[in-house]
Amino acid sequence: MAKKAINPTKSLKIPAIIIISAKICALFSTKLVTKFAARIFTTPIKHKVPKRELEMDAKSIQKQIYVPAINKNIVTYLYGQSDRKILLVHGWSGRGTQLFKIADELLQNGYSTVSFDAPAHGKSEGNTTIMSEFIASVLELEKQFGPFEIAIGHSLGGMSVLNAIKDGLQVNKAVIIGSGDIVQDILDEFILKLKLKKDIGNHLKDLFEKKHQVKMDDFSAYRAAQKIKIPVLVIHDNDDPEVPVKAGVHIHQNLENGSLFLTEGLGHRKILGNHNVIKKILAFIENS
């Protein structure tokens, strides 16, 4: 997410009680409000599985697997029986069944899908997580269920797919939908929504880097894109209120073998079920 979302009135809002709590913390100390912000930033919302996803939930073979790299268990979904497997990666506060319309079309075209509830999401254990745990989960899924022909990721899942490929995930092609780009922009947008001073975003970055011994910008999607050689389809909506379209455009500019497909009026989530989007994905996958 960038520093200011397009049409922010349509973007997800942080509950007032959390904003008030953040402001109270800020009155005491920068350190306290930074820790509070870090906790909120790493705590996804676990939504109930909506009715539209129940068929995929019921027909999937579900299995809990252990991810040694992060010492956590996650729930996986194997949907379909084909040996031609495609990996699906949901975004923040999503679920392994969230890309069900894409999965259904893939099944009808001879593929099966493997997806998962990321740590602290859906049926997986835990309350907090970060993108590096998404990436570690993807790489473990490849070991246990791969090889995958294609990887498809939405939002944070798109960033995770690109980073996983950079870190060794072997796929022929990738599709990212509504993907975030620059990590500092995402932090700054989050701080903006909390109605805190902008410099708290820098403190938040420093806290994460010290805690996890990483450079946050190393996880930015454009940086991963620079190291990827395979074909990547970047899909983004011009009216996305949560991840501005400039994120997708910038990622595309940094890909050696990228294609860009921009949509209108689909926002951040409706895009996942749009017929033209799914048709574009299938054409990209099947075009040798």
Question: What would you note in describing this structure?
Answer:
This protein is about 40% helix and about 15% strand. With about 290 residues, it is α/β, with parallel strands linked by helices. The protein has an eight-stranded mixed sheet, with helices on both faces. Strand 5, helix 6 and strand 6 form a beta-alpha-beta unit.
Describe what is shown at a glance:
GO terms for molecular function: hydrolase activity. The protein has about 290 residues and is of the alpha/beta class. About 40% of the residues lie in helices and about 15% in strands.
Number of strands: 8
Helix content percent band = 40-55%
Beta-strand percentage range: 15-25%
Distance between the termini: 32 Å
Number of helices: 11
Text of the CATH class of the largest domain: Alpha Beta
Name of the CATH architecture of the largest domain:
3-Layer(aba) Sandwich
Largest sheet: 8 strands, mixed
Q: How does the overall form come out from the CA principal axes?
A: globular
Taken in chain order, the helices and strands follow as HHHEEEHEHEHEHHHEHEH
Strand order of the largest sheet: 1-2-4-3-5-6-7-8
And the CATH topology of the largest domain? Rossmann fold
Q: What ranges have pLDDT less than 50 throughout 5 or more consecutive residues? A: 1-11
Count of structural domains: 2
**Mean of the pLDDT scores?**
92
Tell me the Rg in angstroms: 18 Å
Question: What is the SS-derived class?
Answer: alpha/beta
CATH superfamily of the largest domain: Alpha/Beta hydrolase fold, catalytic domain
Domain Peptidase S33 tripeptidyl aminopeptidase-like C-terminal: 225-286
InterPro entries: AB_hydrolase (IPR050471), AB_hydrolase_1 (IPR000073), AB_hydrolase_fold (IPR029058), Pept_S33_TAP-like_C (IPR013595)
GO molecular function: hydrolase activity
Protein name: Alpha/beta hydrolase
